[in-house]
Amino acid sequence: MLIIIQMMNQQKLRILFISSWFPNKEQALLGNFVEKHLHAVSKYSNCMLLHVAFSNSSENSRYHIEFTEVNQIPYLLVYINRKSLSIPFIGNILKFCFYTIAYLKGYKYLVKKIGKPDLIHANVFYPGSFITLLISKLYSLPYLFTEHWTAYMPDDPHEISFFQKFLIRIAARKAKFITVVSEDLQKAMMNAGIFGNYVIVPNVVDKIFYNPEKNGKNTDKTSFIHISSLDDKQKNISGIINTVHQLSLFRNDFELIIIGDGNADSHIEMAKTLNVYNSFIQFEGTKTTDEIATYLQKSDCLLMFSNFESFSVVIAEALASGLAVIATKAGGLANELSNEYGIFIDANDDEALLKAMNNMIDNHKNYNKKQLTEYALRFSEEKVGLAFHTIYQKITEQNSDK
User: Fold this and answer.
1) Among 27-31, 86-90, 235-239, 265-269, where is mean pLDDT lowest?
2) Of 26, 37, 12, residue with least CA distance to 123
3) 70 φ, ψ (degrees, to nearest 5)
4) Position 9 pLDDT exceeds 80
5) Are 50 and 183 part of one and the same domain?
6) Which value, to the nearest 10 degrees, does the dihedral of the CA atoms of residues 214, 219, 221, 222 take?
7) CB distance 300 to 222 below 8 Å
8) Which strands make up the sheet holding 63-70, listed edge to edge?
9) CA dist., res. 323 & res. 321, Å (int)
C-alpha cells in the first residue's frame, strides 16, 4: 500500500514502447503479449506505442500513419507500402532504409503531439535493435529491452544469423536492463553470447481469466483443451492427435478442443485418417480473448505437448481459470511448476502423454482450483506492471546520478 501511495505522489514517467512485433491490420495477433505488457505498464506510467509494419495497401503513398488511442494509450502505427519495395536486387536494402525512416518519422510525430519520453521500452531484439540504438543515441534516451523470441531456445530450428546476433549483442550491452519472461530464456540467450543486466518479468494474464467457476459443460466427458499457433515444429500437434487416437482405442469418455490461429488443414486431415475428427477432436479455429476465457472455463485440463517454449502464457491463463495442466518440460513456465498444478512430462514422449491423459481423466477433479488461481495472480496486470515500474524507477535514478 505504501508503494502505491508513493507512486501516486510521483509524476508519472513517459514510456515509449517500441516493438518488433505488435498487433496491426496485417497481423492482428502478432505480439499480442507485448500489448498486454503495455497495458500493464500503463497502470503506473504514461505510455505511448510506436510500431512500424509493412502493408499490401493499394495506395500509392509510401508511408501511411495511423494514430489512435486504445484505453487512453496513444498508438502510432506507421505502415510501409510493399509496392515501394518491388525493385529488383535492392528490395532488402530499401526495406531497411524505409523501415528506419518510418520509425524516425513516427518518433518525431509522437514527440510533437505528446512530448518527449523519459525512456524507451523496446520489445523483441530483432529487427528492433538498430532502431532502438539509433533513437536512443539521437535523442539521449535510456532504454531497456524485453525479449520473448524462442529462437534462442536449443530445440528451436530457427537459426539466428551472424548479422542478427551482432546487432542484438550491441543493443543488449547498451541496454540498462534486459527483461525476459523466464529463466530458461535468459539461460538460452546467455548461451548464445548475449549478455546484459537480466531481470525476469513474466507475461500478463488478462483479468477475464481469473474465474475458476465453471460456466457449465455440454457433456459429461473430460474436456481437454489445446490453444496455440498450431505450428507442428513447436507445438507438436501431430503428437497430440496420434496420442488421442491411441487413447480412443480403450476409452471414449473424453474430448479435445483445439483452438489456434494457424493453418489446421494438415492436422484435420491427420485426425480424419485416424478416425478421431469430430468424434474425439474438434477444431475451433481462431478465437478472441473473451471466447478463449469461456472455453477454458468449460474445460477440465489444458493439454500442451510443445518441443520448446520461452514462457507459454496459455498455461498461465489456464491456471488462472482453475485448470490443471498437462505440459512438457520444454522451457518456460512448465519447468517451474510442481505436480500440484498438473502433470509434466518430457517433450516428444508419446507414451508419457498417453499415461498423463489417462490419469487426468480419472483425477482432474482432485486438483484445488483455488490454489491454481492463486498461483496465477503473479501474472496479473497489477503485479507485472509494478515490476516494470520498479525497473523504470531504477533507470531514471541511475540517469539522475550522472
Assistant:
1) 86-90
2) 37
3) -120, 115
4) no
5) yes
6) -20
7) yes
8) 63-70, 73-81, 46-55, 14-19, 119-123, 143-147, 178-180, 198-200
9) 6
Cα(146)–Cα(221) distance, integer angstroms: 41
What is the Cα–Cα distance from 214 to 206, expressed in whole angstroms?
17
Same domain, 134 and 237: no
Among candidate residues 100, 102, 138, 96, the one with its CA nearest the CA of residue 120: 138
pTM of the model: 0.89
Q: Are residues 186 and 84 in the same domain?
A: yes
Are 265 and 186 in contact by the 8 Å Cβ rule? The answer is no
Tell me the C-alpha to C-alpha distance, in Å, between residue 222 and each of 281, 287, 299, 341: 12, 21, 8, 17
Say if residue 272 is in the same domain as residue 183.
no
Cell of 90: 535492392
Residue with cell 539521437: 138
Tracing cell 477454458 back to the chain, one arrives at 296
276 in the same domain as 137:
no
CB atoms within 10 A of CB 10: 10
Residue indicated by cell numbers 483443451 = 225
Q: What are phi and psi of 222, to 5 degrees?
A: -70, 125
Give the relative orientation of helices 381-400 and 32-41 as an angle to the nearest 10 degrees. Answer: 70
Domain span at residue 254 reads 207-378
Strands 254-260 and 281-285: parallel
Rounded to 5°, the CA angle 321-351-235 comes to 50
pLDDT over 70, % of the chain: 93
Question: What pLDDT is stored for residue 95 in this prediction?
Answer: 84
